[in-house]
Amino acid sequence: MSFKRCAPSWFDSSSSSSSSSSMPYVDRLNRVCGFLDLEEKENSSRFLRRYFILDTQSNVLLWYMDNPQNLPSGACSVGSLKLTYISKVNEASLKQKPKTEFCFVINAVSRRYFLQANDAVDMKDWVAALNRASKITVRHTHAHAHTHTYTHTDTLMYAHTHTDTH
């Protein structure tokens, strides 16, 4: 997977066409970012162009009306999804979205989010980045240390079945 670096903050992004540049990017803070079309409401078939930032340090996927560099200082995101709520990200089937090219779906606790990328490569890059980000790595500090990777669903299931009853 090859991500391009986002332009530095001093770069005038209005002089470049976002539709012709490759997405997603990795910015200076090591966040995956770029434009995607987000289905407004599940099954509405109305997609809205949004700028996404996958921030693994803050454990969240954020989306904005535009690149935050182009928005007024302090502009808030218009949507967010905690990475712990994501169970799986995959390409949307033709049955799910027959008329939407390069579409993928984020299966979350509350709902499914359908997103459309610019092309097949961007779609595969976003799916891979989101699936990687929604995994938890737990390191054991025992003498025979092992590293195990659990999905957030596994962790939520474990937490549910091992709750403290005191």
Write up this protein:
This protein is an alpha+beta fold and 166 residues long. It has a single domain, classed as Pleckstrin-homology domain (PH domain)/Phosphotyrosine-binding domain (PTB) (PH-domain like, Roll), CATH 2.30.29. It contains two helices and eleven strands, in the order βββββββββαββα. It has helices at 120-133, 152-161; strands at residues 4-5, 25-26, 32-39, 47-55, 60-64, 79-82, 86-91, 103-108, 112-116, 135-139, 147-151. Strands 1, 2, 3, 4, 5, 6, 7, 8 and 9 form a nine-stranded mixed beta sheet that branches. A two-stranded antiparallel sheet has the order 10-11. A hairpin with a 7-residue loop joins strand 3 and strand 4. The radius of gyration is 18 Å and the shape is globular.
Sketch the major β-sheet.
9 strands, mixed
Radius of gyration: 18 Å
Beta fraction: 25-35%
CATH structural architecture: Roll
Distance between the termini: 47 Å
The CATH class turns out to be Mainly Beta
Question: Uncertain regions: pLDDT < 50 for 5+ in a row?
Answer: 1-20, 137-166
Gross morphology is globular
Helical fraction: 10-25%
Structural class: alpha+beta
What would you give as the CATH superfamily? Pleckstrin-homology domain (PH domain)/Phosphotyrosine-binding domain (PTB)
